[in-house]
Amino acid sequence: MQARRVQVQPSVFELESPKIVGSSNGLLCLRIKQELHISTLLLWNPAIRELRMTPRVGGYHWLSVGFGFSPIINDYKVLIIRKTDYYMRTFRVEVYSLTSGSSSWKVVESKILEGISLKGTSVTANGVMFWHVGNDDADMILSFDIALEVFTLIPFPVVANRDLCFRLAVYENKLAMLVEDCSWRISKPEPIALWVMDKGDEACSYGEGWSWSKKCNAAIPHYVNPLMIWKSEIVCKVCENGKWRIALFNVTTSEFNMIVMHDSEFIGFMRGLECIDYVESLVPVGGKKLYATFT
User: Fold this and answer.
1) According to the 3-state scheme, what is the secondary structure of the chain?
2) What structural domains and CATH numbers belong to the chain?
3) What is the pLDDT of residues 197-214, one digit of tens each?
4) Rounded Cα gap, residues 183 and 188, in angstroms
């Protein structure tokens, strides 16, 4: 399998220090630095070269950004979680709707976040955003229904009590979790488990009537770091013979294939290029027709 380079055309419009914080149906949500400690979010469709800047959000201490689509209301929303006080565990959550035409952010109820800490970036599946969170007692999943604008806490899957690393992902448009054994030693294969949240009663919301099931538990003969799921394959960062590579592990067939990538390209990946699930689309963002140059 070959990696394909995507060219970004030169333009009069520059994005300074861009970071991809979300991807949905061909739209990318970018966070850019405009001034000292001040960031702005952009919605960008690379396929049609359309870019839209969201209204600026004041204040400091951004903790996380979520981005996703709800098929129920046919709308894309961006969500920001930030601290209101650096020394307190108090939060402010604001949401921006792509189709509302509003020039401002909407504050949503966030009391459920009090006393918990975010432990990773968000993923979105079937109209719901998810974060790995925890408090002094346990790890949990925080969900945000894009249509209802309501938060819910979901229990973690029951796993062995040992050194484990968790990464949220999306598998078959469902919330999934990649579990890696962080106590790995070079003398044994690296185990990776894939857990998927399945629903029971259609009328139940996330966390009610839903259960975790283990889809695979693979032992791969390399040191691996699972990054995300693409279709039916786990995208992994792999250490082989002292060099890092990208590989795909097929959940269905258990095949393990390395992606051919030039060393110079992979050095760039290691320095911060994002690993996202992206598909080209014609979805408009209602912004300017511009090319984008990353600096």
Assistant:
1) CECCCCCCCCCCCEECCCEEEEEECCEEEEEEEEECCEEEEEEEECCCCEEEECCCCCCCCEEEEEEEEECCCCEEEEEEEEECCCCCCCEEEEEEECCCCCCCCEEECCHHHCCCEECCCCEEECCEEEEEEECCCCEEEEEEECCCCEEEEEECCCCCCCCEEEEEEEECCEEEEEEEECCCCCCCCEEEEEEEEEECCCCCCCCCCEEEEEEEEEEECCEEEEEEEECCEEEEEEEECCEEEEEEEECCCCCEEECECCHHHHHHHHCCCCCCCCCCCCCCCCCEECCCEEC
2) 1-156 (2.40.128), 162-200+207-279 (no CATH)
3) 886 554 445 556 678 888
4) 11
DSSP lists the bridge partners of residue 30 as 20, 42
> Which of 97-111, 113-127, 227-241, 277-291 shows the lowest per-residue confidence on average (mean pLDDT)?
277-291
- Cα separation, 189 vs 172, whole angstroms: 27
